[in-house]
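Model it.
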Amino acid sequence: NQRRPRKGSDLMATVNIEFVDSVSGIEREISFDRETSCSECHGTGSEKGSEPEKCTGCGGKGQVVHSQGIFSVRATCPKCRGQGEIITKICKSCHGNGRIKEHKKILVKIPAGIENGQRVRVTSEGEGGYFSGPSGDLFVEIFVKSDARFERIGNDVVSHLKVTMAQSVLGTRIEVESLKGKVFIDIPKGTQPADRVRLAGQGFPSLKGYGRGDHFVEIDVVIPLKLTSRQEGLMREFAGISDDV
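Modeled.
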C-alpha cells in the first residue's frame, strides 16, 4: 500500500560566498522549488469533505494475484495502480495528485569557519512528506570564492609580504592585511626569505565551536635587478668588510 506515511525527498541547493564571509559567517536568502502536500486535501487527492474508496479490483491491497499453473504471481493492481484506493471526487487544487509545486525563499545561516564544498543542513525544508509523513531536508552546498591575498590551510591562513633586503636585514614594522583588516607586524632583524611571522588566533574559527587557527605572514625578500652606482659601491663595501662568501 503506497498510501502509508513516507518521508519526502531531500533537496540540494548551492550558495556562493566571499572568502571573508567564511571567516565570520553570514546569512543568505535562497529560493528554490519544491513539491509538498496539497493543503486543500492534505495529500489525499480527494475533494475536501470526501474520502477515497477502497479499490474493488484488489480489495484495498494494491496487488492482485495471477495464477499460472502451479505458480501464483503478484502484480500491482492496474485499477488503483497499487494505491489500494480510488479517488472518486478529485481535488481541484492538485487535480488528484495530492501534491503541489511551491516556490519558497528562506534565510540560511552559514556558520563561521565553513570550508569550500561543505554543506549546511536545513531540517524539514526538503520535499513535503507523503500522507502525513515528515518532510525531507535541504542541503546547501557552500562554494567559497578564492581571495588573491589569502590561502586557507585547515583553520590557518597564509599570506605573503614583500620586503626589501634592507628591511629583512635591519628589521622593520610594517602594515599588512589580515582577515579582520589591516594590522601592524614586526619584521625581526635578519629575517630570511620564506620566514613566517605568526599572528596567533587570527585564522579561521573551528566549526566544532572551540579554538581558532593562526595567520602566518610569509616573507618574500625582493632582490633588486638593478643597482645605482652608489648602491653597488655600498654593496661592495659591505661585502668587503663581512665574512660572507
